[in-house]
Amino acid sequence: MTWTKQRLNNLFFFLGCAACVVMLFTFDVSFVELWEHICHAGYWLIPILGVWLLVYGLNAVAWRAIIKGNLQGEVPVSFWRIYRLTITGYALNYATPVGGLGGEPYRIMELSKDIDKQHATSSVILYAMMHFFAHFWFWFISIFIYLILAAIGDLPITPAIGIVLGIIVLFCLAAFYLFARGYRKGFVVYVLGIIGKIPGLKGWSRRFRGRHAEALRNIDSQISALYSQDTKAFYTSLVFEYFSRVVQSSEVMFMLLLFGIDCGGGLGGLTLTFLHSILIVSFTTLFANLIGFLPMQIGVQEGGFVLSIAALGLSAALGIFVSIICRVREIFWIAIGMALMKIKS
């Protein structure tokens, strides 16, 4: 078993390394232009890269709250190990299509060294659910941020924009309903039932549910138990996951400031700039997740940044710069995640 896990660990490691190489050769600019963008960022690269230490820290706290609530007791895993698995898991998610095909199985495999496999599986699934649940809250609240800024005359509001915002609100409300169902009744058996309706997968789904029926029921009961029995852990995780996205918006704000965009300066100007950054990250991640079936979301993230920045009345050139520096940041943290994979803790 240990030998098999080591082989899987090596597979994930080489997958992440290959992703770094692919990313380097799929930039929409030449290496000369890429270097010029990096030089333009200059010392601002330090806070742009460094802010993710805090982002991943908030993610790790959110995941630890879920593990603690799921176990209904002390967590037999150090915070450093959870933090390391958080970084490595996200690095693998960046590297695989339909983000999660790499990161979540790796987290389950590693966490099952510390706790039983069913609790490891349910904790990872619960955290993945929370990660997406917080995304929807981020998008939902961003709509009201936009409306407030439009009300004070900072951003435009037209019938077309109103329709788009309305669609996003309905989309989020529908997602809230589905998540509420998943948290109340479990999630795994329900999803496997949906997979069983896909042509060619019906037989596999039926066999898998038959072989692992008891384990799947236990995992689902653990998922529903967190929501119904430990609301403190649930909402603690949600708050930290939500604010990790707010903190993530700082990297865009740093790039706006780099271009001299500070909405007039002063505390009020910086506040507006930060709110604009939240909207840019919100609409970009929404676009990227709607079309998230490409490895590293090649081309999708870039287009999302250009569109969201242009929608706020800023130049497309700024959108290209932001997308390129964010791609550099992803490569940097994928490399860190792959290195951490080889650190034993």
Describe the structure.
- The structure is a single chain.
- This protein is an all-alpha fold and 345 residues long.
- It is 80% helix and 0% strand.
- The protein contains 14 helices and no strands.
- The chain has helices spanning 2-24, 31-41, 45-71, 79-95, 103-111, 117-151, 159-185, 188-195, 202-211, 213-229, 231-258, 266-290, 300-311, 316-341.
- The protein is globular and about 60 Å long.
- 36% of the residues are buried.
Helical residues, percent: over 70%
Question: Low-confidence segments, ≥5 residues, pLDDT <50?
Answer: 293-297
Mean pLDDT: 79
What's the total count of β strands? 0
| Main beta-sheet annotation | none
Q: What separation lies between the terminal Cα atoms?
A: 19 Å
> For the CA atoms, what is the radius of gyration?
21 Å
Note the run of SSEs as H and E.
Answer: HHHHHHHHHHHHHH
Quickly count the helices: 14
- Percentage of residues in DSSP E strands: under 5%
The rough form would be described as globular
Helical/strand content category? mainly alpha
